[in-house]
Every structure is written in structure tokens, then in C-alpha cells.
């Protein structure tokens, strides 16, 4: 079954998801300045924002894990690129590390340097909680990204992807495929990431819950380790255990490189292949008809964290809210990307 035919059947669902996601992506940080009259003849109003205008220079420290995974590399580069857009940000980026002790040392350096804000994607949220709390107590605005601290006092605001929502999006899309392709009691498989991680558990639970809404369930499930090699091994085992599959959801597009290799080696393509995270590889496969869809786990989280850190340090807020201050918690959307909307999401695709 061609990707074109598949996407035509699912166009309505994706169009709804795309509109929601585009609206979320289009919303920028706006100031507390009220709308002003437009100069055009229509006499209408247009939003006026001074948040992007150069203000007092603020020093923002950023620390994230080692970029040993395509999504993490995208997180780090997006944060730096966002900071470079502003003349009033003095951006100090620590070397990426997977050692919590080293990252604690980075944060202590930021505290000693008296930075205005810290954007922190911790290697281990619990391990970095104490030092992040110290930063807050020193009057430094801390923005927690992706992996949560174990105390509400450790950050002013938290920016998260929606792991449970990823599973819901993938499961809802699978249900749509079942209905529109008259698959009946479909054989649905899942290739998870590391099972011991809460994020994997959340993704699996969301997938299971969404499938239950249309009377489906996961018939085959294997777990990998977010690596190419483990993805290929897990997918090979899955294909050997099941002679026919209707839909496969793979949690992670980085491990999806190996998953796709296993599919090709086994010469199996009878199923709808859905990915997760939104890599450039996945999006190219969607364009070429080798993959049905992927579910976005935004690599913009740290970049969004940099923007919010700047607003906090400059004592600005969000005028799009009735409560104009920066929210305590921001959870980003997990839209489905397929052939109908892949072009608009391609700029967010990261290289695996």
C-alpha cells in the first residue's frame, strides 16, 4: 500500500493535529503591552510586543547531557541557536555530560558566576535537584527541561515534551488506520525504548489507552535501548515472532534507523510504520513513502527554555494569558506528522 493512498485516508485526522500544532508553534512570547491600533485603512488592531526588542543584557547558563543521541544533539544546538538570536543574551554553555557529578559542578560554577538564569536539562533529575534548589535560593531563575527535578522548589518553570501524549497520538492514529483500512482486529506491535525509564512507561501507557478507545490492543511488544543496534535487534526479533503485522509503532526515531534496517533486511513492508520523536530520517522516509508517520517529541524544549529564561530574567511575562506571568509548567504538543504535513515540520527534524 503506497504512502500516498495511506495519507489520503488519514488526511482529516492529521489536518486537525497539524492545525493544533501549527497554532502552538506560531504562538510567540509576547509582552504585557496591550494591542495598539494598526496604521492600515481598515482601522483594525494588531498585537504589539516589545519582548523581542533588545532589553537589559541577561546572563543565561545552559547545561545538558552529552549529545550522544540525535535528539539530544538537536536539543543542545537549538538552545544555542535561539540564544544567538538575541543581542541581550550572554549565553554560557557547559560541556555536555552524562555524569551527574560533573553537571552539578557546572551548575555550581554558574551560581558562583552570578548568572541571571540557568536552563538545565539534567542527566538525572533527582541528582540535580539539590544544586538547582541552591541556584533558586541564590536568586537565579532556573528553567528545568525534559527531565523533572524531584522538588517544586528547584525550578521557576519546567518545559516538557509529552511522553504520555506521544503514546496517545500514536494510538489514536493507529485507530484511525484500523477504521479507514477496515483492519478489524488488527495485529498491532510496539517497539519501545528502555523499559525501566518512566518516559518509556508513559509512552506505552498512552499508546495502550488510546488503542483501548477503539477496541484494539498491543499484540506484540519488544523493547530496545534508544540505539541503532538495539533497534535493529529488537525489530528482527519482532518480525521473526510474527508472520504478519498490521501496524508497528516504534518509540524513537534514532533507534528507528536500526528498526528500518531490520524491516529492509527481512523484506517486510506489509504494515503501517509509525515512528516517534521526529528525526530528519523519519521525515525523509515519509516523503519517499517508506514510512507512514512519526509523532513529534519537540527538540525545541531547551530553546523554549532559553526564551522563557530571558523573559524571567528581564521580568517580562506572557500577555496571551490572562495571568501574564510565565507559567510554572509548559507541556509541548505531540502532533502526528505524515505525508500531508511533513514539509512544515521538516525544519524541526534532527539528524540521527
TrEMBL record:
Q: Which UniProt keywords apply?
A: Signal
Q: Does the keyword Signal apply?
A: yes
State the residue spans of region: Disordered: 32-52
Using the record, list the residue span of the signal peptide; answer none if the entry has no such feature.
1-35
Subcellular location field: Cell envelope
Highest taxon in the source lineage: Bacteria
**Matching PROSITE patterns, A to Z?**
PROKAR_LIPOPROTEIN
Periplasmic binding protein domain segment(s): 60-316
Which PANTHER family does this chain map to?
D-ALLOSE-BINDING PERIPLASMIC PROTEIN-RELATED
This chain's protein is named: Substrate-binding domain-containing protein
Q: Which residues form a coiled coil?
A: none
Q: What is its main location?
A: other
Q: Hey, which family's this protein in?
A: Belongs to the bacterial solute-binding protein 2 family.
